[in-house]
Design goal:
Distance between the termini: 19 Å
CATH class of the largest domain: Alpha Beta
CATH architecture of the largest domain: 2-Layer Sandwich
Number of strands: 12
Number of helices: 12
CATH superfamily of the largest domain: GAF domain
Structural class: alpha+beta
Shape: elongated
Length: 340
């Protein structure tokens, strides 16, 4: 647990100072750094030269979600002394944005795009340790292994592919003590949930077909019953109307999420492009829509998608939109509850 403290001696090489009791997450990370014989005064390496960095940015699965991170985090830290970094699954920083003065200061410790900040390279830091543990981590000041980083604090949360769950990167806030404050971890956690849902919504991961499953005892809702669509933390979207609900197959989940996210709807070519990545896949889309209509009709005929354009006949509350709205309003704890 992060809040467990211990004062066991370190082995092998270590920073030449007595740090006293430490949180267990920090002590165990320092032990790993010691075993790697990392120099506590060393600098990270620039692992991605400019051309390689641009290629990695363009091809990385988090690239489509960059506007989400900017909207939820970067736009709020301008002039605050805080930085927002996005790294890949190897701990290499791909984007470092935020306060201009803080960015210049961070260059002194090579906290810049292209630098390697894995735990195996620089020891204890929020981005690297979060990737090792595969969970959110906060590191404060002197808890860093590297002496050059001890004027900073940071919070980082790993990001996973929304389809198969494998690790694809990390999102980090770095700065003064506020970067590891009590509200920062919930904020970054909510942002990661929004990013993962956004990637699923856009269909950037390959999505297979799965048969829809209906409730054993479907409940017929009334025409005024509120409609919603649950997508966060699930492989299959669950549309609900009143007390009635069904579980959709993967492709139908993607289509319903797209329609709920854009009430004005899509032309056939737009929806084909969003779902299949091919504007000419209309002939594939049409029979899929017929199947989806039959599935949704079993839940509530008033929710059956319409055509010309493809759209939902009435408002459907998408949990992703609810999450983003909560983060925008600063309701970070509520956002975390909504995203988990």
């Amino acid at each position: 647990m992060d809040d467990d403290w211990c004062s066991m001696p370190l082995t092998a090489s270590r920073p030449p100072r007595d740090v006293g009791p430490q949180r267990r997450v920090v002590r165990e990370s320092w032990d790993r750094a010691s075993r790697h014989r990392l120099d506590p005064d060393g600098l990270p390496r620039l692992e991605l030269p400019e051309d390689d960095l641009e290629d990695r940015r363009r091809d990385h699965p988090l690239a489509p979600a960059l506007p989400v991170v900017r909207r939820l985090l970067v736009d709020d830290v301008s002039g605050s002394g805080l930085l927002v970094a996005i790294g890949d699954e190897h701990g290499r920083l791909l984007w470092v944005e935020g306060d201009h003065t803080a960015r210049r200061r961070a260059e002194d410790m090579l906290f810049v795009a292209g630098a390697g900040w894995s735990e195996a390279r620089v020891g204890t830091s929020a981005p690297g340790t979060a990737l090792v543990l595969d969970r959110g981590v906060q590191i404060r000041g002197d808890e860093h292994w590297n002496h050059r980083v001890r004027a900073w604090s940071c919070t980082a949360v790993p990001v996973h592919d929304p389809v198969d769950g494998h690790l694809i990167g990390v999102i980090d806030i770095t700065g003064d003590e506020r970067a590891a404050g009590s509200l920062t971890l919930p904020l970054v956690t909510a942002t990661v949930a929004a990013v993962e849902a956004h990637l699923a919504l856009l269909g950037f991961a390959a999505v297979g077909h799965a048969p829809a499953r209906t409730s054993r005892h479907p409940v017929r809702p009334g025409p005024d019953s509120p409609a919603g669509l649950t997508t966060l933390g699930r492989d299959e979207a669950v549309p609900t109307v009143g007390d009635g609900r069904i579980a959709l197959g993967a492709r139908h989940s993607e289509i319903m999420a797209l329609l709920a996210h854009r009430p004005a709807g899509y032309t056939a070519h737009e929806l084909a492009d969003a779902v299949y990545g091919d504007v000419d896949a209309v002939s594939t889309l049409r029979p899929e829509m017929v199947r989806l209509r039959h599935v949704v009709e079993a839940l509530d005929p008033t929710l059956v998608p319409l055509s010309r354009p493809y759209r939902l006949p009435r408002p459907v509350t998408l949990d992703l939109d609810t999450l983003v709205g909560l983060v925008d309003r600063g309701a970070h704890r509520a956002a975390v509850r909504a995203g988990t």
